[in-house]
Amino acid sequence: MLLRLYYEVAARSFRRHVTYRAANWAGLATNAFFGLLRSYIFIAVFAAQPLAAGYDLKDSLTYAWVTQALLALVYMWGWAELTDTIRSGQIATDLCRPFDFFGFWLSRDIGRAVYHFVFRGVPCYLIGVLAFGIATPTRLDVWLAFLISVVLGVLISFGFRFLVNLSAFWFLDMRGVNYVTATVSTFFSGILIPNAFYPDWLRALSDWLPFQGMLYVPTAVFIGKLDGAELALVLAREVAWVAVLLLVSRLALAVATRRLVVQGG
Question: Residue 200: inside a domain, yes or no?
């Protein structure tokens, strides 16, 4: 019964996003634009240096387009729906509903992520294939590891975003929190350049943070840069961060509801 409820919540979230066709086309155009921009930057860079940190030009072009394709799935920036319910006081009503509040929001996000995978991720990747002939994995185990890593990346992102939004219980002005968290997650997620390009000490730091699990790890798996024991290690880290972030999110929600102060009404 409970699983059926969560399925319906996810399905409704999917259908709700389907209705925003203009927004999807605009988002896809934006992803494609930045995919092109990043591609030509990589082309210019690799014209002078054919190999960097084990990446050649085709690897880097593939990296640019796969990260652009996954960007909407992980939704690192701009998600403030939970914050809005706290500000409006709607959360007081939502917490009284006969379902698990955390499970409800997680189900909504899964529906959103599936939508963005189908209608933003796949088309964006295909644009990269047609425009630059980017790589496509030929091994089934690589595809399986990639999909597992993507799912874990979405869960990591949700746990992190849920915690950031939940901090609206304690902060009247969320702009500083949003700015800092967006900056840190952007830098360490791998959306700018592959984390493999970072200096050794910075790469070692990023290895133990959750953010690289959002984009860098799934994309590195897709390209074939992670395999064997190294792949098992990074997937284990993703699983660990999913467990930590979801557990901390639930604990923070429990603390917040005990001292609930409805802001704005």
Answer: yes
Buried/exposed 34-69: b ≥16 CB within 10 Å, e otherwise: bbbebbeebeeebeeeeebeebebebbbbbbbbbbb
User: Which residues of the chain fall below pLDDT 70?
Assistant: 1, 259-265
pLDDT (0 to 100) of residue 177: 84
The number of domains in the chain is 1
- The single residue listed with the structure tokens 């634009």 is 33
Could you give the CA distance from residue 82 to residue 105 in angstroms, rounded to a whole number?
8
Q: Which residues pair with 55 in a beta bridge?
A: 52
- What pLDDT sits at residue 260? 66
pTM value is 0.91
Task: Look up the domain containing 230 and give its range.
Answer: 2-258
Please check whether residue 148 lies inside any domain of the structure.
Answer: yes
Q: Is residue 264 part of a domain?
A: no
Token couple for 203:
């790469």
pLDDT tens for 23-37 read 889 999 999 999 999
**In a domain? residue 93:** yes
Which residues 6+ apart lie within 8 Å of 38 measured at CB? Answer: 64, 68
